[in-house]
Design brief:
Blueprint: H1 4-13, H2 20-34, E1 35-38, E2 41-46, H3 49-62, E3 69-74, E4 82-89, H4 92-99, H5 103-106, H6 110-124, E5 125-127, E6 136-140, H7 143-155, E7 161-165, E8 168-173, H8 176-186, H9 189-238, H10 245-256, H11 262-269, H12 273-292
Antiparallel strand pairs: 1-2, 2-4, 3-4, 5-6, 6-8, 7-8
Helix pairs in contact: 2-3, 2-6, 8-9, 9-12, 10-12, 11-12
Length: 293
């Protein structure tokens, strides 16, 4: 079963934009974030087949005469899922494409920046399933690229956190609303709908749990109080203590209703909770007096 992050990427990888400038910005971001230069070749690596196919389709648009080398590798450790590798020789059309890149022109419009961030997320992004802790990340291999992506996010009103972990540089968003807005901006509308539904269910459950915990806590306090009151009453009864009639009425009511709250017991006696609490305080004082004896 595909993870939520994989579903998001599958949706984004299949939603092609017809604007060639948007596609260029997205492709450049995917290469910058997800590829390395190795022995005169560009090597793009990703665990999502749809993302790998997306890179190949975009590459055909920008250097149609170059046939990429494609491989699927399965890591031996625990027979993990396949990793897809797309390689291009850094020469001719490929070399010319990157040598003539003008980043000011590449990102001169907001829609181009959005496309660039879409490519960055496809190549190095992840997002937790909405039922768990909210977290969206974009991981890069260089601090300069992480800072560049962060700058584009800031221009679009997304203030990403930044940290370094080992040899990787991580940008992250943690608020549910922000993550929804970001995914929606990238074009993952189905994923956003799923996120919103799961988040609403999660928040309702949290509210129910809070109410239940409060009620359970209140019930526990009521039971503890009742047990202490019964213990006081038994001390007075065991010592044949002289007790005023109204207190005897209270003692009898408590013994007959050991699980009632103060509010419920006060209602049975036809008096206020404040008045009933006063009686139990007086019973406690008497019990302490006779208990010492």
């Amino acid at each position: 079963m595909a993870s939520y992050a994989q579903d998001v990427k599958n949706e984004l990888a299949h939603s092609f934009d017809d604007n060639i400038d948007c596609l260029r910005a997205e492709f450049v971001a995917m290469i910058k974030v997800g590829a390395k230069k190795i022995d005169g070749r560009i090597e793009f690596t990703n665990a999502n087949a749809a993302v790998a196919r997306r890179v190949i389709k975009l590459a055909k648009k920008f250097f149609p005469n170059v046939k990429p080398e494609v491989a699927a590798i399965r890591k031996k450790r625990l027979l993990k899922n396949l990793t897809y590798v797309v390689r291009f020789i850094m020469a001719g059309e490929v070399q010319n494409f990157f040598d003539t890149l003008d980043y000011a022109e590449l990102l001169k419009r907001m829609r181009f920046r959005v496309s660039y961030l879409r490519g960055a997320f496809l190549a190095g992004g992840s997002v937790n399933r909405p039922e768990s802790q909210y977290l969206l990340q974009i991981i890069t291999l260089t601090a300069s690229e992480a800072e560049f992506i962060r700058k584009q996010m800031t221009k679009l009103d997304f203030n990403a956190g930044f940290r370094r972990y080992k040899k990787k540089f991580i940008l992250w968003l943690r608020e549910g609303d922000t993550i929804c807005d970001f995914l929606g901006m990238l074009g993952a509308n189905n994923a956003v709908e799923r996120f919103e539904i799961a988040r609403n269910i999660k928040e309702i459950r949290m509210q129910v749990n809070r109410v239940v915990n409060m009620e359970t806590g209140a019930l526990g306090k009521a039971v503890d109080a009742a047990q202490k009151q019964i213990a006081d009453i038994k001390i007075l009864l065991d010592n044949n203590a002289p007790v005023k009639e109204r207190f005897r009425e209270t003692m009898k009511a408590r013994l007959e209703n050991p699980s009632c709250t103060i509010g419920e017991l006060a209602e049975k006696l036809g008096m206020s909770q404040k008045g009933l609490m006063y009686r139990f305080r007086m019973i406690r004082r008497l019990a302490e007096k006779f208990g010492k004896k």
